[in-house]
Amino acid sequence: MDNLNFSLVRLAPEAVFLALALILMAGSMLKNGALQKLIIKLCPFGAIAAAILSACSLSAPPTDMFFGGYRLDGLSQFFKVLVALGYLVAWFNTLSQTTVEDVLKPDYYLFLTLSAFGLLVLSSAAELVAIYLAMELSSYSLYILIPARTRSKEAAEAGLKYILFGAAATALALYGLSMIIASQGGTVIALLSGKAWALPDNILAVAGLTLFLGGMFFKLALFPFHFWCPDVYQGTGNETAAYVATLPKLGAVIVLIRLAAIFGPSQPITTTLAVLAACSVTYGNLCALAQKDLKRMLGFSSVAHAGYILVGLVSGTAEGLAAAAFYAMAYVLMNLLCFWVIARISTDGRNLTYDDLNGLSVKSPYLALSLLAAAFSLVGLPPTVGFIGKLWLITSAWGHGYDWLVIVVCVNTAIAIFYYLSLVRHAYSEEVIVKYGAQSPQLDKSLLSQVGAVVLALLVVLLGVLPSPVYGLLLMAAKVLTS
Hints:
Blueprint: H1 12-28, H2 33-40, H3 43-56, E1 63-65, E2 70-72, H4 74-95, H5 105-124, H6 128-145, H7 153-184, H8 189-192, H9 203-220, H10 228-235, H11 238-244, H12 247-259, H13 268-289, H14 294-314, H15 318-345, H16 360-363, H17 365-379, H18 385-397, H19 403-427, H20 433-436, H21 447-465, H22 468-482
Antiparallel strand pairs: 1-2
Helix pairs in contact: 1-2, 1-3, 1-5, 3-4, 4-5, 4-11, 4-12, 4-15, 5-6, 5-12, 6-7, 6-12, 7-9, 7-10, 9-12, 10-14, 11-15, 12-15, 13-14, 13-19, 14-15, 14-18, 15-17, 15-18, 15-21, 15-22, 17-19, 17-21, 18-21
């Protein structure tokens, strides 16, 4: 029992979300609509409580539970803060959308909470079976959330595609897991890091790890596991797309960071990751150039950003792992801000095009300015969090045998300027206000809409100006992993 090292206090964030999910499950079976609405309003309070509890243990000493299969450290708690806050933003996004019928909303919030709970578990999972189960817990809920867009054939198609591709990725991960167990005789990451992972020494282990990573690449929407991404973003509701585009990526990143301790630089697996990163960055940006639908553009954009995140992992250094974690945070903030603006413009749930942004600076200056901050950060322009995140990524890879990858990233950053700044051009283009003003969707100009946009925009800018405290915390956690 001593080896379990169980501590309910350290597991408080997970306990909060599990309790919230159980309450929502009970509420979904009730016939009292007023009581259901009251239970749903508990969601933001649970998210805030989980975020605070996770933040309070950021500097606590690392703790291993359940025979080393569950690890609580600065890295896991940091990602739990992001998951809880991202869930909070996703909950507020649902308030401005009408794409989910009232009768389905209790179930919608239940599965949204279960997915976030799976991601919290995934943040601390340090054993391959636990990682696999947590990944499936977070994914199964999305199978239900994605097609929840009322009376939409596109949403049904998006849900079907996500299920099919998800099943294939799950099979790959499970088959790879069996190969790792057969070749290495264990699944705890701390023990696997001392095993041989070179191709000539253990071909079966390398093949198994490659297949297992495929499941993570699916969640991250990395090329060539990205095919579901733009179709799902386009087909599902705006509020669901905001969640799918951000939080599941955090789960994939934290797992990849922990697995990076297994393989070092200049190994076949690491070189493969570098090639996939270059392909993902290039393919995602080139495809995004041709899109008119904003959510589809952001789908291909996420393919490119998945490649950016991988740049930090290929260096095999603590600085690279910290940079990958920091950029994952930046990616979540940038996209949550973009989808926040989209959800406030498209109050009827329709898919927006670039033309729907025309005249936004006149109709809602706060939303337009927030969209500008998001676009600048997605490009990687100072003084935003996207700029400093990319700077640390390319700095970590330079001089470690992947200088060519840094050049690819820089070239693609220049390519991305065109379609990201098109958001700003349309929002601030006064010439087309008269032409398109009457056709624009009804804006949400509520106080919550403007305050939420400003808060997210300030975070994007402030973390670009003062990134050192966050990066320092991540660097200390990464050094523990690589030591």
